[in-house]
Amino acid sequence: MGTAGEVVQEYVTVQVERLLGAVPALRSGDDDAVHDARVATRRLRAALSVYRPVLDRSGCDPVRDQLTELGHVLGDARDAHVERRALEDRLTLEDPATVVGPVEQRIQEDRAAARLLAQDRLEAWLTSPRFEALAAALSQPLPAGPRAGRAAAGYLPRRARRAWERLDDAVAVAAQVVPGNERDEALHEVRKAARRARYASEVVEAVVGEPARRSAARAHRVQEVLGDLHDTVVRRETLRRLAHLADLDGESTFTYGRLHALEQAAGDAAESAAERPVRRATRWGHRRWMS
Predict the structure, then answer these.
(1) I need a surface site. Which of 45, 104, 111, 144 has the fewest CB within 10 A?
(2) The CATH number of domain 4-285, selected from 3.90.245.10, 3.40.50.10140, 2.30.30.280, 1.40.20.10
(3) Per-residue pLDDT reduced to its tens digit, 108-155
(4) Strand partners, 151
(5) What does the pLDDT look like over 174-210, one tens digit per residue?
(6) Which pTM was predicted?
(7) Residue extents of the structural domains in the chain
(8) Spacing of C-alpha 252 from chain mean position
(9) Which residues form the CHAD domain (predicted)?
(10) C-alpha triplet 51, 47, 153: angle, nearest 5°
(11) Rounded to whole angstroms, how far apart are CA atoms 184 and 165?
């Protein structure tokens, strides 16, 4: 099965290939490439964080920081595209009689402008010395840390368990928060912790096999459903802002309020749908491979 360092490096190498391989399409504004690069970036950040003792911190921490910044830029580009499509789909399902004013035009122009701005920022990032240095660092084997020589089968599952305990903590915090903005934020933290646990488990699939894959699938389901919830939160904020702009221009805000209510209902449904996946993810039974 090899050493912990070998297993982590193999996982990192695959993600680096996906990230760097997406660069030409990123520069052309391809949304699928943005999504693929964003996922690869997140997987790299999780691996470098969860399995930090396997790596040399002085060499890897700056790489992780740069990946975090790149992830934000990719996220802005991806989210503007996805949000526009979701709002347009929502509007298409409405009775034309309930669509008052140039709602579709405002949505399209606002999200298109956000996407263009994000693409400009992404292009600037990809052509900067920072990205050149990041690509050069990622193209080389990561420097080994003090635990790199440990047996992968014995060491890596224990590190993955820390990521899952972080998910447990986030779930416990969210359970104590009353519904509202603070609860939305707490559930977003659960989503991020689930994503981290998922990717941590993916690394260990090379060692543990099917049990780690099943755990990753449980975390993925939590991530998906709470991602749906978070998307409604973001869209509601966009609709509030567009309604304010419409009001300033003397336009009706009726349709924005209607769409906001539909997003609220979708968010409530997503939160309810998350209860079972969260329970399944926080059970100990599927985690026996981590002990």
Answers:
(1) 104
(2) 1.40.20.10
(3) 999 999 999 999 999 999 999 999 999 999 989 888 899 999 999 999
(4) 3
(5) 999 998 899 999 999 999 999 999 999 999 999 999 9
(6) 0.94
(7) 4-285
(8) 35
(9) 1-290
(10) 50
(11) 21
